C-alpha cells in the first residue's frame, strides 16, 4: 500500500497538507462532504505542528476501507492531554477547531503524548462502502515517509486475508525513488495475489520474480486466527519485534541477503512460528527508522491504536535521510 507524508515546519506547509489530504480523501472514494472534513481537520493538525511542535510530520495513509491522517512530532509534548481536548483551549491565544473539534470531525480519533518528548495524533475516516483487506481479528496501522527530495517512497507494505489467515508484509526497495518503489510494488503484489501461501513461499516467489528490477529487503508475517499463531519469514535488515501481552518481547531475525539476489547466494529464508493472542503486538519497520528503541520503554504507546504507534515510532525514531515505513499489527482486532 502507498501513502504520503510531508514535513510541516512553516505556514506554507499547512496549505500543502490540506491539499494532500483532500486528494487522498477523494482518491479513497470518500464523499465530498467527508473530504471537506478531512481537509479541515488536516489543516488544524498541520497548524498545530507549525505553532507548537518541533520536527512536525503529517502522514496520510489510505487503505481499502479508511483514510488515516497522522500528525507526529518530536516535542515538546502535551503536559495535560485532557485539558488540551477542551473547546477553546490554546496556549498561544489563536483560534481554531482544536483537538476537540478534530475528534468530532473524524470518525475515529486517538492521541498519544509524552511531555518533553512529543505527540502523535490520529484522525480516521471510514469508507463504509468498502471492506477491509484483513480479518477483524487483527488491527493494523502504518506510517511511511519518502527520503528527502523524493515524492515517491521506496518502502511499501501490503496486507491481505484468505482462508483464515491474514498476511502482512513490508518491503524496502534498494536505494530510493521510483525504481525502489517499483521493486517494492513487485514484491508486495505477491502477497495480495496469494495471501494464504506460506511466508517462505511468498519470499521465494518475490525472489524469483524480481528480474531486472532492483532488489529489496522483505519481512512477511502471517497470522493464523484459528491456531493463535504468527508465522514469520524475512530477508534483509528489516526490524521485526513481537511484543507479548505479559510485556515480554522478542526480535524476530531475518535471513541475511536481498530478495532478487538471494538465490545466487544459496541462502534460504528461515521461517519462525510464535504464539499470538489478542494482547500481542507485532512491529515491523525498515532501516529508515532506527532500531534503537525498546518495547519496554514504549509500553504506554501500545495502549493505543496501531496507526498511532506506527506514527509515534516514525516520528520519534525516523532517521529522516532515507525512505522509512512502520507497520504495526495488534491482536485486538479493534481497527
TrEMBL record:
Keyword flag Transferase: yes
Keywords annotated in UniProt: Kinase, Transferase
Residues covered by the PPM-type phosphatase domain: 137-331
Gene3D superfamilies, alphabetized: Histidine kinase-like ATPase, C-terminal domain (3.30.565.10), PPM-type phosphatase domain (3.60.40.10)
GO molecular function: kinase activity
UniProt-listed Pfam families: HATPase_c_2, SpoIIE
Name of this protein: Anti-sigma regulatory factor (Ser/Thr protein kinase)
